[in-house]
Design a protein that fits this description.
This protein is α/β, with parallel strands linked by helices. The protein has 14 helices and 24 strands. It folds into 2 domains: 3-20 and 235-422, UDP-n-acetylglucosamine1-carboxyvinyl-transferase, Chain (Alpha-beta prism); 23-232, Enolpyruvate transferase domain (UDP-n-acetylglucosamine1-carboxyvinyl-transferase, Chain). The chain is globular and about 65 Å long.
């Protein structure tokens, strides 16, 4: 059933919001659970469609799975892996599931995994994954839309990534855990989710060093050393950045709880430079507020620890109503400006030239009927609608549901006027007034 958001803008968001577990981390931890016989329980798991898809992928491989949504935990018993095939009908729904390739090759010495296909935000080639596995000794065939990897014994190797690909780094980490000898991944991705995966693997009994730097060393261990564990996922830095943006965009004041501030240093510094107020209240809580109109600055997306591409659309939304002109350079994905036409429909002044967007701040945005094209563009449109004059309708919510748990409920707790409706429901819209945490305000 097609659903849409109805949002009435212009209300400052105020109160408290708690950030859930990191989507981009938990999906990889679930794949890593395949490596060890026995039960592994992962906590702080967000209730997202992507998590449901990864559960289906893992269950299809023969592992037993249990998802307790109330406790936000997943238990995976990978004692028996009965299939080495991750089928297209599941992998095509979510690119992140391709990471089971490294885990299966490591555990079973063979894997057949569907190529993930296209992606809305741009080309994401798997060449680095394949070349890295070949360096470890795997024989690779690509036929009928599947990658077939097979190896009698994986052996450690020196691997250099031409770009610090997050997916390739993760796949090669998983593949190297049980390899004979030592593997070095140079020019590795440095994202917090990579560190979380390394910590998870080490807790499981692996020997991974250097995660969070450009060089990761994995010393292979015997399969008997790996065991089931209990592990808690890190908070989602992109969800945190989204709510920081929404509070600032509506000139509100809020407390962002359950966040690792160090994961957002670059983004936070940019917001401060624009004129927002951000204070560390507790080790895992940030107070965010904004009273005045922001100042335009420039952004260039870069691999971590640079400015995150997943928050680029948020930056653009803030620039649409800031003083002056700001330029965003998207250096990672060629189609990541898909929110531009929708923001223009709201009155934004944006000129796009290939991977550059020039945004001249306007007095205000106005409500419009909008369509989410991908996960992060969709979330940015929600933020734009919350600060715009009038009402907006946002369609294609399945994109947003991939990465934001209880999104509309959290916005309502901050006082935002947002309602989720079925497409067929043509009754009049009575937007809730929302609830405020008066003691905090």
């Amino acid at each position: 059933m097609t659903e849409k958001y109805i949002i009435k803008g212009g209300t400052p968001l105020k109160g408290e919001v708690s950030i859930g577990g990191a989507k981009n981390s938990v999906l990889k931890l679930m794949a890593a659970a395949i490596l060890a016989k026995g039960e592994t329980t992962i906590y702080n798991v967000p209730d997202l469609t992507d998590v449901d898809i990864m559960l289906s992928v893992i269950a299809q491989l023969g592992a037993k799975t249990e998802y307790n949504k109330e406790e936000k935990s997943i238990t995976i018993d990978a004692t028996e892996i009965t299939s080495i095939t991750a089928r297209y009908e599941l992998v095509s729904k979510m690119r992140a599931s391709f990471v089971v390739l490294g885990a299966l090759v490591s555990r079973c010495k063979e894997a057949i995994v569907a190529l993930p296909g296209g992606c809305a935000i741009g080309e994401r080639r798997v060449d680095f994954h394949i070349k890295g596995l070949e360096a470890l000794g795997a024989k690779i065939k690509i036929e009928n839309g599947y990658v077939h990897a097979k190896v009698p014994k994986l052996k450690g190797a020196e691997i250099y990534l031409d770009i610090p690909s997050v997916g390739a780094t993760e796949n090669l980490m998983l593949a190297s855990v049980l390899a004979e000898g030592s593997t070095t991944i140079q020019n590795a991705a440095q994202e917090p989710e990579i560190v979380d995966l390394a910590n998870f693997l080490n807790t499981m009994g692996a020997d991974v060093n250097g995660a969070g730097t450009s060089e990761i060393v994995i010393n292979g261990v015997h399969p008997d050393k790996l065991h089931g564990i209990e592990y808690t996922t890190i908070p989602d830095r992109i969800e945190a950045g989204t709510f920081m943006s929404a509070i600032i965009a509506t000139r509100g004041k809020g407390l962002i709880k359950n966040v690792f501030p160090a994961h957002l240093t670059f983004f936070t510094n940019k917001l401060l430079k624009m004129g927002a107020n951000i204070k560390l209240i507790e080790p895992n809580s940030l107070e965010v507020s904004c009273k005045n109109r922001l100042q335009s600055i420039n952004f260039v997306t870069q691999p971590y620890p640079g400015f995150p591409t997943d928050l680029q659309s948020m930056a653009m939304t803030l620039l649409t109503v800031s003083d002056g002109v700001g330029i965003i350079t998207e250096s990672l994905y060629e189609n990541r400006f898909m929110q531009v036409p929708e923001l223009r429909r709201m009155g934004a002044d944006i000129h796009q030239d290939r991977n550059h967007a020039i945004i001249k701040g306007v007095k205000k945005l106005t409500g419009a009927t909008l369509a989410a094209s991908d996960l992060r563009a969709g979330a940015a449109l929600v933020v734009a609608a919350l600060m715009a004059d009038g009402s907006s309708t946002i369609e294609n919510l399945h994109h947003i549901d991939r990465g934001y748990e209880n999104f509309e409920n959290k916005i309502r707790l901050l006082g935002g006027k947002i309602e989720r409706r079925n497409e067929e429901d043509s009754s009049s819209v009575n937007l809730p007034e929302g609830t405020h945490n008066e003691s905090y305000l």
